[in-house]
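Supplementary Note 3. Input sequence used for the single-chain structure prediction.
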Amino acid sequence: MHQIADKVIKKVYGQAAGIQWSEPVAGGDINESYHLLLADGTEAFLKLNGRAADNFFAAEAQGLKAMGEAGAKVPKVLAYGKAERTGYLLLEYVRKGSRKANYGVLLGQMLGKMHKAATEGFTKAGRYGFYENNYIGATPQVNTPKAGWVEFFRDNRLGVQMKLAGRCFDKEDRHRCQALLEHLEDYLYEPEYPSLLHGDLWGGNVMADSQGLPMLIDPAVYVGCHEADLAMTELFGGFSPDFYDAYHEMIPRETGYADRREIYNLYHLLNHLNLFGGSYLASVRRILKRYVG
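The predicted structure, written as discrete structure tokens, is reproduced below.
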């Protein structure tokens, strides 16, 4: 690692730059991560992945940039690219702090602000998608622009993951998947406006910075319906009641959200099934049976 990290630092800061010390940072299951202290006293956060596609970290950098432009607090991207066939992403080092007393409120307000921001600059065409494909965890995420939200979620989200999960399904599972896709417009609605989404908004992708303020990390960004982000906050828990209260003061809860929530989270459960195996199959089947029978 040290040799690759040194090449990255010299590439970004010049041949005179060097690393005073480094330490691994735990928490991810895809990348190697390190806290670096450079010889001039600069601190940085380095992600490395020798198996990732060439655009893997470029996609993450683009997502962070987009969220920042939409009003979210995110780490600053310093550089990304490849060194010795290893992909890297160099970010500012953000020291974790204790959450402020109103942390949940601030997080809800920040997410609401991001979801209400204009999105025209984030897609090449259409209302929904993103200007590049990216990744949800290690899985490629298709962001081909679509005019309608239901069409986008059917073709670029559920349909893709269901196809990948085919090896895990029996005949009844495949029938239910096809039936849900064919009748998805009976369950989802076209939102009043599109929103820039984090795309992978579970508790591990939110942190408190040194001032105790909420920050979003590790995105899988695209333009979609705000409810998809909101649903994932409820999939694994970890978000406080005051977060939801503050969010809904900015974006009121839509009638029928509870009936749509599991369809949005089906995407993430399918992705977990494809990434981590059969322990998620029962949860996927439960949701399919709820909507298809």
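Residues 231 and 258 are 9 Å apart (CA to CA). The chain has a mean pLDDT of 96.
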